[in-house]
Design a protein that fits this description.
Blueprint: H1 3-10, H2 14-23, E1 31-34, E2 37-39, H3 42-58
Antiparallel strand pairs: 1-2
């Protein structure tokens, strides 16, 4: 997938795709085809997306014991 396609998939800008690539070690590494042309494997992006969703689910605050109705 191109940086534009990755941006659309995650609803982010192309600049954010590159920021994630440069600063997030969990984000899939690009495959550089030629100068100015990079692609990402869909399978690796799907794994990254699943990991993000799992982390988001585990960070949801649950009521403390005895406070739930």
């Amino acid at each position: 997938m191109s940086d534009r396609q990755v941006a659309v998939r995650f609803d982010i800008s192309k600049a954010t795709v590159w920021r994630w690539h440069d600063n997030n070690p969990d984000f899939p590494r690009r495959i550089k085809l030629s100068p100015g042309t990079s692609r990402w494997k869909l399978s690796e992006l799907v794994q990254f997306e699943a990991k993000m969703q799992a982390e988001r689910r585990s960070s949801i605050i649950t009521p403390a014991k005895g406070l739930s109705k």
